[in-house]
Amino acid sequence: MTDTPNPALTPLAAFVGTWSGEGNGSYPTIAPFGYQEEITISTVPGKPFLAYTQRTRATDDGRPLHAETGYWRCTPGAGPGDAPRVEVVLAHPTGIVEVLEGTGPFGTAEQVVDLSSSSVAGSATAKRVDATARRFVVVGDELRYTVAMAAVGSPLTHHLAATLRRVGA
Asked: Model confidence over 13-46: pLDDT tens digits?
């Protein structure tokens, strides 16, 4: 993999890199928790998408908590002057697949991508997840994100928030 994005990915260039830091999670059905995280968003030579991997570990004892893998891509806005659209597909080892779509203000000091699920599917044994929403913000070498989730009978509710620092290109 290379760090030179396909020209279609120019709006997402600020997100490319390896990011590491800490976050906190909560949800009505679980106890609050802290975690350490690494996210890698990388280009794929010549392809108009970014590869995405995420891994978390508990801050108290280092045990693995969660992982996601997937792809980000950028498509033109609906009309002249419209912000590009961002599409993200994520697979979870718990049997969940998310398809998220959104947009963001690009070309400013604060790069923001707001996403909401257009589809969430689960295997027969996965916990029920009805919807998700994610916000990613990059300012310089800092990536912040939040995740909301509607699952197991709860409405769309805050679930995760983290602040990560760029540790690699």
From this structure: 999 999 999 999 999 999 999 999 999 999 998 8
3-state secondary structure labels for all residues of the chain: CCCCCCHHHHHHHHHCEEEEEEEEEEECCEEEEEEEEEEEEEECCCCCEEEEEEEEEECCCCCEEEEEEEEEEEECCCCCCCCCEEEEEEECCCCEEEEEEEECCCCCCCEEEEEEEEEEEECCCCCCEEEEEEEEEEECCEEEEEEEEEECCCCCEEEEEEEEEEEEC
pLDDT of residue 62: 95
- What are the structural domains of the chain? 7-168 (2.40.128.20)
Statement: residue 2 has pLDDT above 50:
no
